[in-house]
Design a protein that fits this description.
disordered N terminus
């Protein structure tokens, strides 16, 4: 039963990370269109904070349970790269910039961070499944 909980944690985390990456892509590329159709909230700071909080909380728990189960730090390193990418996107680059190049870089780092977090969960899940064999 415990192994099932860890497996589900990575599935939930991968889904949350994928949703975060899609959110970052949409808000970076189509925020103007989203505002027109009444979905401007997708690009709000509150939405960013919610996605980051859920994604990073689930990922942090998955790291702890994964390392205890399989003993590998590789997933944690991928997680760290994803977090660094998201931090660059949201706190180093100007997330609200009107400059096209800055917006493109912000979107790139945000989406890359989300993809790295999905990759982390997939690897973490696979390593845990190998332990059960």
């Amino acid at each position: 039963m415990r192994a099932m909980g860890r497996m589900n944690l990575d599935k939930v985390g991968a889904f949350a990370s994928a949703a975060c990456a899609i959110h970052c892509l949409l808000s970076g590329l189509a925020l103007g269109v989203l505002s027109v159709v009444g979905m401007g909230f997708i690009g709000s700071t509150t939405t960013d904070i919610i996605f980051l909080t859920v994604t990073l909380s689930v990922a942090s728990l998955a790291i702890i349970t994964g390392i205890r189960r399989h003993g590998s730090w590789r997933p944690a390193l991928i997680f760290l790269a994803g977090v660094i990418s998201i931090v660059i996107s949201h706190f180093v680059l100007d997330h609200e910039s009107k400059d096209v190049m800055t917006r493109m870089m912000t979107t790139f780092f945000a989406v890359a961070g989300g993809v790295l977090l999905v990759s982390f969960h997939v690897l973490n899940l696979r390593l845990q499944q190998q332990c059960r064999r």
